[in-house]
Design a protein that fits this description.
Radius of gyration: 34 Å
Largest sheet: 9 strands, antiparallel
Strand content: 15-25%
Helix content: 40-55%
Number of strands: 17
Distance between the termini: 26 Å
């Protein structure tokens, strides 16, 4: 005959566990949420009333840190009290095994596991996003606070200092949400390597914030526009340059979509197939598309020069730029030399646009040297292949209606920017996802094309894949640790039933602390080195499980 289960004892123990767990979790999560609020409050990113809302929003994310220790603490206290009062001795005398006594802790541990999976996959990312929005939505306020504290503001490659910053009223009809006036700003412009390219000062600067300037797979963006008045700068190459105004326009991607911790579980899984949702991946994808389109445009130009001796581009005004030469040869990364024809010059005809009034058909330029490169200026048309042609040792003359050249004007250098390449080619490549675009790059490489950006994109994708793997395993490991820590506290309390409660908790706390540390360390290691970090991430959980099983076997013998 089967022995009846001790449901009454289970209900009593489960109720005690739940009450202690709720109390412990409430205290721990309140302390942690308050600590998370201190820094943005001290930095001036939160007003006092906003800090209360921020702390309330921080409670669900902080449960990921509080619940494992709260569960361990609750099971330790409850099972130690029952052991110290000899209630388990009485239960054992009635035929209730130690394994049966651990059922309430195991059940609550499973509930915590399921709850933590739901929190980590769905709830916590939403609350983290709301918290991040609170401290970043008023970008102008953040910039003003930084400047007024004497700190610099970094806007991509530009560093801005100012005596003070204060908000001003917007002009009627302005699309901006906020405007700031900077007093006596100093501006430092740096290159990709962080070296100073130019530095200058202005009497005044106005900065406008345009939120949600763009929306796409990589998420919303914010555009900053700044105008420097009476600007004087010193360039490392050109020397002293003075201008009345200097406009600056910068697009800032949303940080909410650029960090996997803000993504739900389904979004993380979708990110593996659509990595361009991350703006830094999307930017690299666009560079690769530009590189492929540029390579194809150069190939088309080379074939045209070889077959008919000329190639045609359009400038930003829609005028034709006819280039006559013998060939195009690579001169470096994203730079090509146009080889002169039999006459020893590169002939470039800038024809007037049809219907435009003019005394001549256009202008002819004869250059000894011609270099073609992509146009990297900030005001280039989006979604189009834009080139720049630089001519050196140039003789220019008007073209008559019959095409004869008049008296020439000589100059050392002449540049044409904003030259449009084939539109459909780049537009088609930009519509491709990341992996189809990489396949196109592989085909280009096999046919002799250079695809430097594809290697960079693959490295970025490997880094993103490691980050996704790290975040997914971290969330699951934290959920599993909740279950293991509940059992760890229970069996430790049974083993040290004659010791003080604090002593018993320390025997379970330190192994649990090592588990949490290894999960965090393993997550960081996985992000930087891939799968070897998973050994550390799950190793702490495995060691805690082995410790719990070993402690249970000791308790079971007695």
């Amino acid at each position: 005959m089967a022995r009846p289960q001790p449901f009454t004892l289970w209900r009593s123990v489960f109720g005690e566990l739940f009450r202690n767990l709720a109390l412990s979790a409430a205290i721990l999560v309140s302390v942690i949420a308050f600590a998370a609020t201190i820094k943005p409050l001290a930095d001036g990113r939160l007003a006092p009333l906003d800090a209360i809302k921020f702390m309330l929003l921080a409670i669900p994310p902080m449960l990921a840190y509080a619940l494992p220790f709260a569960g361990c603490f609750a099971s330790t206290l409850v099972y130690h009290r029952l052991s110290a009062d000899n209630e388990f001795v009485a239960a054992a005398s009635g035929g209730v095994s130690h394994r049966s006594l651990l059922v309430p802790a195991a059940v609550l541990g499973v509930v915590l596991f399921g709850g933590m999976v739901l929190l980590s996959e769905q709830v916590i990312p939403r609350f983290l996003g709301t918290m991040q929005t609170m401290i970043t939505q008023d970008l102008a306020k953040i910039l003003a606070n930084s400047i007024n504290r004497g700190q610099s503001v970094e806007l991509k490659k530009i560093l801005v200092f100012a005596d003070r910053a204060q908000p001003v009223d917007l002009e009627p009809g302005s699309d901006a949400t906020t405007a700031l006036v900077l007093a006596h700003p100093a501006v430092i412009e740096r290159d990709d390597d962080g070296n100073i390219e130019s530095e200058g000062t202005a009497s005044r600067a106005t900065l406008w914030v345009f939120p949600d300037a763009g929306q796409g797979d990589s998420g919303p963006t914010t555009r900053l526009a700044m105008r420097l008045e009476d600007f004087t700068s010193k360039d490392s190459k050109t020397g002293l340059v003075t201008g009345r105004t200097l406009p600056v326009s910068i697009t800032v991607p949303s940080t909410l979509r650029d960090d996997p911790k803000f993504l739900r579980g389904d979004e993380l899984r979708d990110l593996r197939t659509r990595p361009e949702r991350m703006s830094w991946i999307d930017q690299r994808r666009r560079r690769l598309a530009n590189e492929l389109a540029l390579g194809r445009a150069i190939d088309d130009m080379s074939r045209a020069l070889s077959s008919i001796g000329s190639s045609t581009l359009l400038d930003s005004a829609g005028r034709q730029l006819v280039i006559r030469a013998s060939a195009v040869r690579a001169a470096g990364k994203n730079s090509w030399n146009i080889i002169p024809g039999p006459a020893g010059t590169v002939e470039v005809d800038l024809l007037r646009k049809d219907g435009a009034p003019s005394r001549s058909a256009g202008v002819r330029h004869l250059a000894r040297t011609a270099i073609l490169a992509p146009d990297t200026s900030d005001d280039r048309p989006a979604g189009e292949l834009v080139l720049r042609l630089e001519l050196r040792d140039v003789a220019s003359s008007q073209l008559g209606e019959a095409g004869s050249a008049a008296e020439a004007t000589r100059r050392e250098r002449l540049s044409f920017s904003g030259l449009l390449g084939p539109k459909a080619q780049l537009a088609g490549l930009l519509k491709m996802g990341t992996y189809p675009l990489l396949d196109e790059a592989e085909k280009s490489r096999k046919t002799g094309g250079v695809s430097w950006e594809s290697g960079e994109l693959r490295r970025e994708l490997d880094a993103l894949d490691n980050e996704i793997t790290a975040k997914q395993n971290e969330r699951l490991a934290v959920a599993v640790s909740c279950l293991v820590m509940m059992l760890t506290g229970a069996v430790t309390a049974l083993r040290f039933s004659r010791s003080l409660p604090l002593t018993v908790y320390l025997w379970s706390f330190f192994p649990a602390l090592v588990c949490v540390i290894t999960i965090s360390g393993g997550q960081q290691l996985t992000r930087s080195h891939g799968w070897p970090g998973l050994l550390l991430l799950w190793g702490g959980v495995a060691v805690l499980g082995v410790y719990t099983l070993w402690t249970y076997m000791i308790v079971r013998k007695h």
